[in-house]
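Lab notebook: predicted structure, single chain.

Context: the supervisor wants predicted structures on file for every construct in the current expression panel, including those that have not yet been purified. This is the next one on the list. No modifications to the sequence; it matches the entry in the shared construct table.
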Amino acid sequence: MTTATAGRASAPARPAPNTMRHAVRRALRRNHAAKVGIGVLVLVVVVGVFAPLIAPHDPNAQNLTLKLRPPFWSAGHEPGYPLGTDMLGRDVLSRVVYGTRISLLVGVASTLLSGVVGTAIGLISGYYRGWRDQVFMRLADIQLAFPTILLALAIIAVLGPSLWFVILVLGLTGWVSYARVVRAEVLSLRSREFVVAARAIGDNDRQIMTRHLLPNIVAPLVTIGTLQVAAMIIAEASLGYLGLGVPPSIPTWGGMLSEGQLYLRSAWWIAVFSGAAIMLTTLSINVTGDMLRDVADPKAYTK
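Prediction complete. Output recorded below exactly as produced.
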């Protein structure tokens, strides 16, 4: 057996595709809530992608003669506006539908950004250790000392409200959890036989980190990323509620909550439907993340 063959043979065995599919089916059988969560999540994604085709009206079209009309089951509702209208006569359903697109974009894009940054920092910190590890981990400690939402508020207050600024700020403030998990995994893998064998056959540090270490930490990264999408959606809604997120001209769930808080007694539907959208989306993402965590557990393939 050659050294290269030995190095490949000593790498941790990954589950076969059919074994992984069996683990997914087993996790779904055990977790009935995950089935509902995945169904809701698929519906939310479809609504966000096809928002222009689903929304019955322009979300920013104003008609003051139709302001504060109730939902369709209440007396005084306006036909064609099933979830009622807001204080400017805008269709609540259309604004919720378009808000889905913004929330998903912010949640997924900021999670990808923080995942890339955190994974790179965790790989470098855990593999090289030494002064690099000290610098990166102290930076992580400093960032953890500041509440994430407060740090995001301070940055956006200086830069101004913008969709891309929100994504950038949330992405760059969410890397710590990735970095710590990746660092811990790399510390446990860097001295394993397959890494030693890869180094013996001439692989450089970049090849070892990308070809041998990174594929073995994908499972926890997927789990963290799934749960962080929900956290980013809530963070974006919080910034929108405070008026420091996406510009007011773009309909968002947080912005609708902020606008509807003054009308909770007379027009509760403005805030309630956007709040329900936030709750259902984040809940479905969290339930799906729990299922993925069960699938990522090595015991799931043996039981």
